[in-house]
Automatic annotation (TrEMBL):
<dbReference type="InterPro" id="IPR029017">
    <property type="entry name" value="Enolase-like_N"/>
</dbReference>
<dbReference type="InterPro" id="IPR034589">
    <property type="entry name" value="D-mannonate_dehydratase-like"/>
</dbReference>
<dbReference type="GO" id="GO:0008927">
    <property type="term" value="F:mannonate dehydratase activity"/>
</dbReference>
<comment type="function">
    <text>Catalyzes the dehydration of D-mannonate. Has no detectable activity with a panel of 70 other acid sugars (in vitro).</text>
</comment>
<dbReference type="InterPro" id="IPR034593">
    <property type="entry name" value="DgoD-like"/>
</dbReference>
<dbReference type="InterPro" id="IPR029065">
    <property type="entry name" value="Enolase_C-like"/>
</dbReference>
<keyword id="KW-0460">Magnesium</keyword>
<keyword id="KW-0119">Carbohydrate metabolism</keyword>
<protein>
    <recommendedName>
        <fullName>mannonate dehydratase</fullName>
        <ecNumber>4.2.1.8</ecNumber>
    </recommendedName>
</protein>
<feature type="domain" description="Mandelate racemase/muconate lactonizing enzyme C-terminal">
    <location>
        <begin position="128"/>
        <end position="257"/>
    </location>
</feature>
<dbReference type="InterPro" id="IPR036849">
    <property type="entry name" value="Enolase-like_C_sf"/>
</dbReference>
<dbReference type="GO" id="GO:0000287">
    <property type="term" value="F:magnesium ion binding"/>
</dbReference>
<dbReference type="GO" id="GO:0009063">
    <property type="term" value="P:amino acid catabolic process"/>
</dbReference>
<dbReference type="InterPro" id="IPR013341">
    <property type="entry name" value="Mandelate_racemase_N_dom"/>
</dbReference>
<keyword id="KW-0479">Metal-binding</keyword>
<keyword id="KW-0456">Lyase</keyword>
<dbReference type="Pfam" id="PF13378">
    <property type="entry name" value="MR_MLE_C"/>
</dbReference>
């Protein structure tokens, strides 16, 4: 199965996506997602200028060797650009291998461990009342697990709250927009949101919240304690996670479950978090952490330490990543939950896929490979548009975490 041709496809059907397509001499092809939100062209160039020349002519069936070749062979290891590029190749190769075996990808991984994949959705509102209503709407849609994000009294706009109702896209400007943050306003407000949610809807549904890297460990410990009566499924990204031992302090003070990892690119970013049991859910994704090949290692390590998976699934991860993640989720023994944020209709048209939502779960069809594809003709109609994620400043103007 010699690799004959490889293409990078950059398209913007509602938002930017980078896709890699690998074609073999025997006529099979595979696709992988290479989207790194706000830094898309860096990965496109890494693939185009540095990896593709070394890929042509290789045997597409040698997934492990190709992974090691690009990881070890670069000399410069890890990092989001490198690992996203490797992931795109890896996912395209798993797609080809499963197609060659005439099987859906989950069969190659070891078969299904569950009939459906539990997903959580995003509910958000400009204030407490609107957020409570939105959670109700998601319950009516059939979701069993819902993430709640709300505008904060006294702050103009914040992560996770849509400008247009029903559709949230954080990469919202061709130069970074700026928002203002106040930790005290946030900490004073947030517990009242979850108090109201539990008072309104009871305890049957899972509720989640994303702090989005904006607290210190002791602030996160306090928030975790304040939220304990509302029994969250998890508190996500409570602190910036470069300092893994920072989670020890949070862990010592609260029983609110802890999730982290969407910005991690390698097992070494979460090794201490897992082996010291400082977290409950690992959120590394196929697209940003080296593909199926590397995620298998992370998930296996996590399984030894009672840590479950909870993969990132925002709209900047294309339907190719979502499809591939659902195969992984269907198989992985220590599955926890999968994030699910709806793509726009246009994104779904450009990326035909083989999964659907029903009563709180995602279900895979029976297509061979990972089941997602790209319509290249349609993709060509939507050229790249520069878009950045916002930045955050404190009320005194200091640069802060978004
Ligand atoms: O989905 C989440 O939990 C996120 O935090 C979304 C991220 O901000 C987004 O994917 C950044 O590109
Ligand atoms: Mg997050």
């Amino acid at each position: 199965m010699k690799i004959r041709a490889v293409r990078v496809i950059v398209t913007c059907p509602s938002r930017n996506f980078v896709t890699l397509k690998i074609e073999t001499e025997c006529g099979l092809y595979g696709v992988g997602d290479a989207t790194l939100n706000g830094r898309e062209l860096a990965v496109a160039s890494y693939l185009q200028d540095h990896l593709i020349p070394c890929l042509i002519g290789r045997d597409a069936s040698q997934i492990e060797d190709i992974w090691q070749y690009f990881y070890k062979g670069a000399y410069w290891r890890r990092g989001p650009v490198t690992m996203t590029a490797i992931a795109a190749i890896d996912v395209a190769l798993w797609d080809i291998k499963a197609k060659a075996a005439n099987m859906p990808l989950y069969q190659l991984l070891g078969g299904k461990s569950r009939h459906g994949v539990l997903v959580y959705s995003h509910a958000n509102g400009r204030d407490l009342e609107e957020t409570v209503d939105e959670v109700g709407r998601h319950i009516d849609m059939g979701y069993k697990a819902i993430r709640a994000q709300s505008g904060i009294p006294g702050l103009d706009g914040t992560y996770g709250v849509s400008k247009i109702k029903g559709f949230y896209e954080p990469a919202d400007a061709d130069l970074p927009s700026e928002s203002v943050w106040s930790t005290s306003k946030y900490l004073n407000f947030l517990p009242s949101l979850f108090e109201k949610l539990r008072a309104t809807y009871g305890y049957e549904h899972h509720l989640l919240h994303d702090v989005h890297h904006r607290l210190t460990p002791i602030e996160a410990a306090r928030l975790g304690k304040d939220l304990e009566p509302y029994r969250l499924f998890w508190m996500e990204d409570a602190v910036p996670a470069e300092l893994q031992e920072g989670f020890r302090l949070i862990r010592q003070h609260t029983t609110t479950p802890i999730a982290v990892g969407e910005v991690f690119s390698s097992i070494y970013d979460c090794q201490q978090l897992i082996t010291e049991q400082l977290i409950d859910y690992i959120r590394t994704t196929i697209v940003h952490a080296g593909g199926v090949t590397h995620l298998k290692k992370i998930a296996a390590l996590a399984d030894l330490y009672h840590v479950k998976t909870g993969f990132h699934g925002a709209t900047d991860l294309s339907p190719i990543t979502m499809g591939c993640a659902l195969h992984f989720d269907s198989w992985v023994p220590n599955f926890g939950i999968q994030e699910h944020m709806h793509h726009s209709e246009l994104t779904n048209e450009v990326f035909p896929h083989d999964y659907h939502f029903e009563q709180g779960y995602m279900y895979l069809g029976d297509k061979v490979g990972h089941g997602s594809d790209i319509d290249e003709k349609l993709a060509a109609k939507y050229p790249y548009q520069r878009a950045y994620l916002p930045v955050n400043r404190l009320e005194d103007g200091s640069m802060f975490n978004w």
